[in-house]
TrEMBL record:
<dbReference type="Pfam" id="PF05782">
    <property type="entry name" value="ECM1"/>
</dbReference>
<dbReference type="InterPro" id="IPR008605">
    <property type="entry name" value="ECM1"/>
</dbReference>
<dbReference type="GO" id="GO:0030500">
    <property type="term" value="P:regulation of bone mineralization"/>
</dbReference>
<dbReference type="InterPro" id="IPR020858">
    <property type="entry name" value="Serum_albumin-like"/>
</dbReference>
<keyword id="KW-0677">Repeat</keyword>
<keyword id="KW-0964">Secreted</keyword>
<dbReference type="GO" id="GO:0005615">
    <property type="term" value="C:extracellular space"/>
</dbReference>
<dbReference type="GO" id="GO:0007165">
    <property type="term" value="P:signal transduction"/>
</dbReference>
<protein>
    <submittedName>
        <fullName>Extracellular matrix protein 1-like isoform X1</fullName>
    </submittedName>
</protein>
């Protein structure tokens, strides 16, 4: 069963073990915005599990509710998409349970791809100026989600509802379901290096 949509809220993070009160999530000395409640809780529990077991096993449902689908790049979020890439979640294989959650793993791969490809668009020397960078980022986003849909249809399970749509209707569907539309970073998080599992070739003729 796929996770339901999650209401987005803004929280301010301050201490690592104390409490959540009103609109403030307190954790260890950081003064960083969280883009929703689940991510603040995820940071706390993942740190506890990591300390206790030497690894970081986290609930894929929580991850996917908080980060998938990635937001459609736009004039309004391009700056954040480029600047905060290292502060947004990645999903290496070891963070998933050993069995099940295949749909979450496919979504995690899509996020890993778009984050890697956004880095190419923003800092890889592929583009000149914000106009080209945005064009590249949009193409990377569409390509990553296209691969996600191809992988969804390769299974015997129900596909993501947005994958059932075509063309602009599909992209609008993903865009409206993005839990982090402004590409804000996760509180205190530093992304691991995850090489993309496939290449992205930007075509400037699409701009």
């Amino acid at each position: 069963m796929r996770p339901a949509a999650v209401k987005k809220d803004i929280y301010v993070v301050k201490t690592l073990y104390v409490y959540t009160s009103g609109n403030e999530q307190r954790t260890s000395g950081w003064h960083v915005r969280c883009y929703n409640t689940l991510l603040c809780l995820l940071l706390f529990w993942s740190s506890v599990l990591s300390t206790a077991s030497g690894g970081q096993i986290i609930d894929p449902n929580t991850l996917m509710e908080s980060a998938f689908p990635p937001a459609r790049p736009s004039v309004n979020n391009l700056n954040s998409a480029c600047l905060y890439g290292n502060g947004r979640p990645r999903y290496p294989a070891y963070c998933f349970p050993p069995s099940g959650y295949a749909y979450a793993q496919r979504a995690g791969k899509a996020i890993n791809r778009i984050e890697s490809w956004l880095g190419q668009c923003c800092y890889g020397g592929l583009t000149t100026g914000n106009g080209q960078t945005l064009c590249c980022a949009k193409q990377a986003w569409e390509t990553a989600l296209s691969y996600f849909c191809i992988e969804e249809y390769s299974t015997m399970t129900l596909v993501h509802e947005c994958c059932e749509k075509k063309g602009e209707e599909r992209w609008n569907c993903f865009e409206t379901r993005a839990p982090n539309p402004s590409y804000q970073p996760l509180c205190g998080y530093i992304a691991p290096m995850i090489p993309p599992d496939m290449n992205f070739n930007w075509d400037p003729k699409t701009c």
